Amino acid sequence: MGPRQRQGRSRSKTHALPIILLSFLGFLLIAGVAFGIGMVGNVNRWLSDLPDYTDANAYLVSEPTEIVDCNGNKIASFYTQNRKSITKDEVSPYVLQGTVDVEDERFYEHGGIDLWGIARAAVATLGGGHEGASTITQQLVRNTILQEEQFDSTIERKVREAYIAVKMEDMYSKDEILMMYLNTIYYGHGAYGIEAKYEDELAGEPGRVGTAKSAADLTLSEAALLIGLPNSPSQYDPTVNPDLALSRRNKVLDNMLRLGHITQEEHDAAQAEPITLNVTEISGSGVDVYSQPYFVAYVKQLLEQEFSTDVLFKGGLTVKTTIDPTMQQVAENAVRQQLDTLSLDGLDMGMVVVDPKTGYIKCMVGGYDYNADENHVNHATAKRPVGSTFKAFTLATAIQNGMNPNVTLNCNSPLKAKGTTTEVQNYANHSYGNITLKQATAYSSNTGYIQVA
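and the corresponding structure tokens:
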């Protein structure tokens, strides 16, 4: 091969390399454009069937319905999730600031999604670690309006979540979003929202009965304990893993100190405090009855005739009743005392006291012991035949209408009275012959009284 041929082939190779590179870049560009067009189509499709995020009710969460007595004291609650919403002035400032410091420290700077947080999480993932990038607004969207798909780890769900989060920031203030978040997040032990969790873990009594302190007065240490739970309620459960809970609480305090929201002295004093609990376990859903169980069951039955299950168990209703707790206690004691005196197996008793001027039910005793009765039969509302009890009303009406107590009646048994098709018998089918109304009353004659009626 001559020098000219070798030089031509060398030039050919030199020219071919840029062409290959340009072809490869062109392919990447075309592929990128195609991918972009495809993604735009996908995003449009993903966002085409979003829930109505402009409706404020979409961000409301289920709240218990409370039943109260005539004095306004809670006697029961119906719920699917134990939850109680509060306003900003009802929660400790430590909770407000600490939640932001731990969950989303640029919360007041971003517009719903945190691009810097996403980049940081990506770097952490590449390094083999894990770091969340969801903002408080995104978490709120996930826990409420997109609740049904919150566990889907797909690009589609994340795009939908981010889009609604940005839109939410246009509709609500940062403080409103933060409170909506605090009222919906799950804290463990069946408690949803910071107020329900405070009552469960620290106050130890539903409604804080007998406790002067409110969630607004949480100490820094208490607030940090609760703030640390939503990240993993079971892992950081102080009743199960107290050491992990303590470590998590101290990390919350470290974050607040690093961001300059508490002093070194406050930080050290809070970390030195031991964790003190007074836990009340909360069931996932159902009915909590604190008093008057027979009456509560009666009220629930009436409400179910008027409201749907969703409204009754999620609507946050307050149902005011006329039950008088003082009168109720007296009535219950009277029923139990009478049954204890008779001491007859299988015998039970019901009682209702009604104000004749208003029709208000002042007390209702359905039986000796609601919890001991597997069927929970309310003997005050069971609609059993009244039997001979009603003879007193029949007699009073008869005398009021001029019937003489000495009138003679045929009290033989059995007997079919005029105008009736039903054959009536006396007890044990005993025949008393022709006797007066007074005597028929003394014998409690059914055949005599069917004629009087």
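(Above: one complete record from the training split.) The first helix runs from residue 3 to 46.
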